[in-house]
TrEMBL record:
Residues 741-758, 792-801 have a biased composition (Polar residues). Residues 162-653 form the Serine/threonine-protein phosphatase 4 regulatory subunit 3-like central domain. Pfam families: EVH1_PP4R3 (PF22972), PP4R3 (PF04802). GO terms for cellular component: cytosol; nuclear speck; protein phosphatase 4 complex. This is SMEK homolog 1. It comes from Macaca fascicularis. Residues 759-775 have a biased composition (Low complexity). Residues 690-701, 813-827 have a biased composition (Acidic residues). Residues 1-20, 690-719, 740-840 are annotated as: Disordered. One of its GO terms (biological process) is DNA damage response. InterPro entries: ARM-like, ARM-type_fold, EVH1_PP4R3, P4R3-like_central_dom, PH-like_dom_sf, PP4R3-like. GO terms for molecular function: protein phosphatase activator activity. Residues 25-121 form the PP4R3 EVH1-like domain. Belongs to the SMEK family. The gene is PPP4R3A.
Length: 840
């Protein structure tokens, strides 16, 4: 078992990085462990061992390789636990709370020094820990346990040094610690030591006081509850603290007793009638003070030896909470004074701070006890009391009340929701608890909005459907969300609506932007989780239009919050939302922001492109048509991504299917023939044949069975010829338009988008459905994701290739009879085996 379990928390010291010196075998780095549990490098040198007269024993010496100065001089004590780690590390704790490590460059040097240490301690060099008890047999251990306990020296001034050495030597061994603890318990030894403390103080015997410090500190490390109960009793605890004032490492003693008796004052905000409870509170405060302030920072070797001290404090807090909880008179008085308007501000602040600390203590309770605790507070009326306190002007009192409210929400949000819904039946919206919380969030005066962020997190927990209950009789989600959108949502959105009445935010300072970003974050959460409640609210109140005004903010983070809100709505692919967006032309602020951003490659640019890419990839037809019909001229010159050309391609495919329903139905028939799979698994060779066939075929060839081909040829050619005639007519019109106009969306800084009803489609080109040479509708253009490796001639005038689900389209529209004949020839020359497979 590792005797240094705490040290592992800090991790081993760094290993030696290596070097090029000739004498490397004994080359080491010296490390010490600091108060932050980090290893500090004290220098590099060469280690040796030898007898040091001053220390009267064999010692480890490290001299710096730079100037020969002494980096380390440490006596090898017979009772010190040395540990060898990772073949090149030796780690140990010095008696004066000082952890050391030697990191060797070579394993041979580490083994050599390890043998010297083991030789001094009489240990086998094969062990990794010199003070382990694994070499004791079970019989020996049993004999030791059954033998008489440890005999303590008589408690006299002259023997204090002997007692201190006995305590220090017992700590490394669990067995000796056990015997020492039993001896101290049975003989009432601690009280005798504390009597000696008074004698030493009266005589100003500093040496004796230093020994008593080491003894009392060692007793703490024995980790025994029975000893703690004696040391922390009313008659002993101040003397124990007095002993710990005389640290030998300090030139002057500390004044802990003076602080506890004169500076620290116990305030009873409500008189406590139970003397046992009062004594327990005093004891807990003092023991906590000993742990945090009096005891020196424990080394990692000692840290786990104080676990019982932590437990002592923990169970004391549990007892205090339980005793206060059972004192109904105390709690009744507490809440009565909290809500009494006659209570003065200072007194109220003390009461709220007490209640806050009371709730903090409750975090130490077990789940079932915490249930009873919060149920008691609820029955005593903590939520109405908080409502009164939150309505007060004192910011410190409100801050403490917010912390208490956070304990309640985190513990049981349903309890809070039930309270506010019952309250709504009796009070106006303005004084509802949840609206008070929203108002405090909106009115936070902190420039960094620390309180607002905390309150927004609490609101998010309250409106999160994931922690709402559903029972046979009622659904909490339906009831609470109905209440929230009716009574509270208008309060939450008030700052947003007030700031977006014009084309740009009326206030655009940093604090306002931060607040609106918080509101948008909560609204975005609602869009994701609240379905029809938030949908009705957004559409009826025209919220999205107001949110998109924030795209014009000078604060990029706020503009991105607005964009994220819209992106979340589009991500739902809900046609109600889509119709609302199209009817109100709500892509216009986004396109404006995109154009105003120019050629800058930043988060705004990427986020907007990602939104349009989502529409293209998910093939949201209504939004695709809306964007191309209204904003294509503004976006057609964006060629560093293929998103907008891909959208145009999608749009043209939709128009093509709408104009030629026969082609669309024929394409579905062909697709069913080509991609139908038997129920049985295809053999590998057949799978390879299909894959190769799909790759090698000319783009746009229709693959049909002979019977289907003869049956459908006439039906196919008639709409094709009509389509090509109409196409050529549109191309001639397009050329005329190009001669008259020179619109360029990306390059014209004076580009404007109009929202007036008469010009809603002023960006729509007359030829938005036609393909210019080199346009994204052309199979050879970069914007066509389905562009084949080779295309027939005159491809600049061929119709768009159908691409859906990553599959190359099946129909090509030839411009002349020659192309048509070529296609027919190619189909006729297909191998019979392939045709047969398609027929199947």
């Amino acid at each position: 078992m590792d005797p240094f379990p705490g040290r592992l928390l800090a991790g081993p010291p760094p290993r030696f990085p290596g070097g090029t010196m000739t004498d490397t075998r004994r080359r080491v780095k010296v490390y010490t462990l600091n108060e932050d549990r980090q290893w500090d490098d004290r220098g590099t040198g060469h280690v040796s061992s030898g007898y040091v007269e001053r220390l009267k024993g064999m010692s480890l010496l490290v001299r710096a390789e730079s100037d020969g100065s002494l980096l380390l001089e440490s006596k090898i004590n017979p009772n010190t636990a040395y540990q060898k780690q990772q073949d090149t590390l030796i780690v140990w704790s010095e008696a004066e709370n000082y952890d050391l490590a030697l990191s060797f460059q070579e394993k041979a040097g580490c083994d050599e020094i390890w043998e010297k240490i083991c030789q001094v301690q009489g240990k086998d060099p094969s062990v990794d820990i010199t003070q382990d008890l694994v070499d004791e047999s079970e019989e020996e251990r049993f004999d030791d346990m059954s033998s008489p306990g440890l005999e303590l020296p008589s408690c006299e001034l002259s023997r204090l040094e002997e007692i201190a050495e006995l305590v220090a030597s017992s700590l490394p061994s669990p067995l000796r610690r056990e015997k020492l603890a039993l001896a101290l318990e049975n003989e009432g030894y601690i009280k005798k030591l504390l009597e000696l403390f008074h004698v030493c103080e009266d005589l100003e015997n500093i040496e004796g006081l230093h020994h008593l410090y080491e003894i009392i500190k060692g007793i703490f490390l024995l980790n025994r509850t029975a000893l703690f109960e004696v040391m922390f009793s009313e008659e002993c605890i101040m003397d124990v603290i007095g002993c710990l004032e005389y640290d030998p490492a300090l030139s002057q003693p500390r004044k802990h007793r003076e602080f506890l008796t004169k500076t620290a004052k116990f305030k009873e905000v409500i008189p406590i009638s139970d003397p046992e409870l009062k004594q327990k509170i005093h004891q807990t405060y003092r023991v906590q003070y000993i742990q945090d302030m009096v005891l020196p920072t424990p080394s990692v070797f000692e840290e786990n030896m104080l676990s019982t001290l932590h437990s002592f404090i923990f169970f004391n807090k549990v007892e205090i909470v339980g005793m206060l909880q059972e004192d109904e008179k105390f709690l009744t008085d507490l809440f009565a004074q909290l809500t009494d308007e006659a209570t003065d501000e200072e007194k109220r602040q003390e009461l709220v701070n007490f209640l806050k600390e009371f709730c903090a203590f409750s975090q130490t309770l077990q789940p079932q006890n915490r249930d009873a605790f919060f149920k008691t507070l609820s029955n005593m009326g903590i939520l109405p009391a908080l409502e009164v306190i939150l309505g007060m002007d004192d910011t410190q009192v409100r801050s403490a009340a917010t912390d208490i409210f956070s304990y309640l929400v985190e513990y049981n949000p349903s309890m809070v929701r039930e309270f506010v819904m019952q309250e709504a039946q009796q009070n106006d919206d303005d004084i509802l608890l949840i609206n008070l919380i929203i108002e405090h969030m909106i009115c936070d005066t902190d420039p960094e909005l620390g309180g607002a962020v905390q309150l927004m997190g609490l609101l998010r927990t309250l409106v999160d459907p994931e922690n709402m209950l559903a029972t046979a009789n009622k659904t909490e989600k339906t009831e609470f969300l109905g209440f929230f959108y009716k009574h509270c949502m208008h309060v939450l959105t008030a700052p947003l609506l007030a700031n977006t009445t014009e084309d740009k935010p009326s206030k655009d300072d940093f604090q306002t932007a931060q607040l609106l970003a918080l509101v948008l974050e909560l609204l975005t959460f609602c869009v994701e989780h609240h379905t029809y409640h938030i949908k009705n609210y957004i559409i009826n109140k025209d919220i999205l239009r107001r949110v998109l005004v924030l795209m014009a903010s000078k604060h990029a983070f706020l503009a991105l919050c607005a964009l994220r809100f819209k992106r979340k709505i589009i991500g739902l692919k809900d046609e109600f939302y889509n119709r609302y967006i199209m009817k109100s032309f709500l892509f216009e602020p986004v396109v404006k922001a995109f154009l105003n951003n120019g050629s800058r490659y930043n988060l705004m640019n990427s986020a907007i492109i990602e939104m349009f890419e989502f529409i293209r990839v998910e093939d949201i037809k209504s939004l695709t048509a809306h964007v191309i019909e209204n904003y294509w001229k503004a976006l057609e010159d964006v060629d560093y991504v293929q998103t907008f050309k891909g959208l145009k391609l999608r749009f043209e495919q939709q128009r093509e299917r709408q104009d030629n329903p026969k082609l669309d139905s024929m394409r579905s028939i062909l697709r069913n023939h080509r991609y139908r799979r038997d129920a049985r698994t295809l053999e590998d060779e057949e799978e390879m044949w299909f894959n190769t066939d799909e790759d090698d075929m000319e783009d746009g060839e229709a693959v049909v069975s002979p019977s289907d081909k003869t049956k459908n040829d006439d039906d196919i050619m008639d709409p094709i010829s009509k389509f090509m005639e109409r196409k050529k007519l549109k191309e001639s019109e397009e050329k005329e338009v190009l001669l008259k106009t020179n619109l360029s969306g990306r390059q014209s800084p004076s580009f404007k988008l109009s929202l007036s009803s008469g010009t809603k489609t002023n960006l729509t080109s007359q030829s938005s459905t036609t393909n210019l040479p080199g346009s994204p509708g052309s199979p050879g253009s970069p914007g066509s994701p389905g562009s084949p490796g080779s295309v027939p001639k005159n491809t600049s005038q061929t119709a768009a290739i159908t691409t859906k689900g990553g599959l190359v389209g099946l129909v090509d529209y030839p411009d002349d009879d020659e192309d048509d004949d070529e296609d027919e020839d190619k189909e006729d020359t297909l191998p019979l085996s392939k045709k047969a497979k398609f027929d199947s």
